[in-house]
Design brief:
CATH architecture of the largest domain: Sandwich
Structural class: alpha+beta
CATH superfamily of the largest domain: Regulatory protein AraC
Largest sheet: 5 strands, antiparallel
Radius of gyration: 19 Å
CATH class of the largest domain: Mainly Beta
Strand content: 15-25%
Order of helices and strands: EHHEEEEEEEHHHHHHHHH
Strand order of the largest sheet: 1-7-2-5-8
CATH topology of the largest domain: Jelly Rolls
Amino acid sequence: MSKKPTVHAVASLGKLRMQGAWRVELLHASPRNRLYWITRGQGRVTVNCVTRGYGPNTAVFVPAHVPMALELASQTQGLQLCLPTDESLALPKDPFHLRVSNIESQAAITSHIEKIENELAAQAPALDQALTAYSLLVSAWMARELARQEGAIAREGSHRLVEIYAAKLEENFRKGIGVADYAKLLQVTPTHLSRVCREASGRPALALLTERTMHEARRLLQETDLPAREVAQQLGFSSAAYFTRAFSQSVGRTPSEFRKPPHRA
């Protein structure tokens, strides 16, 4: 019987909020595909640096390595399902954001996710086969819902540049390069890049870059024992002092104040 850890995971949005809202609310990315099934509440979700509103019965799919951020107001309820990057699951290649009005569809996706959660809790024999089966049902549900709604919410033409910026940002944010460098890479002016980012997300290009960098800084400080100077180096800061100033300005605490107590052996 296989003992390897599964790459599936299910968590309530309430649990994610308790673990640290910044982990979801600041721009970040994951090596796993994620489906957010929001059943109650309203707010905003940012995917590929494009922000849209959400309400009850909204499904948001975020492929692996796509930057995203999700507001988690106290009344927001729902589930996060993490799925592996397995080509056999035939998951969508692009993110989507759909309001699901069909009651049967609402019940179906809730049931699929809860069954994956139950399998993970039970850890019974043939776990991998069961997870694959339920994941295929989730994939089929997504395909059918996209077909029912004739695709994801239409993209505005001006958002294409922002989505490309988001991809480049995710590839390069650890290198310490600035907005002017991204603008040059994208063959536009920094002013134009910031304007279209503000129109798409409500934040200029620099704010998005800072948000992504500071999420990773928080993650490294809480999940590793790396000294702050090494965190600074990994994120492309020219010095530890500069990193400390930037972190304190963004977070309101120094790296050492933010860091949780060391892990016990």
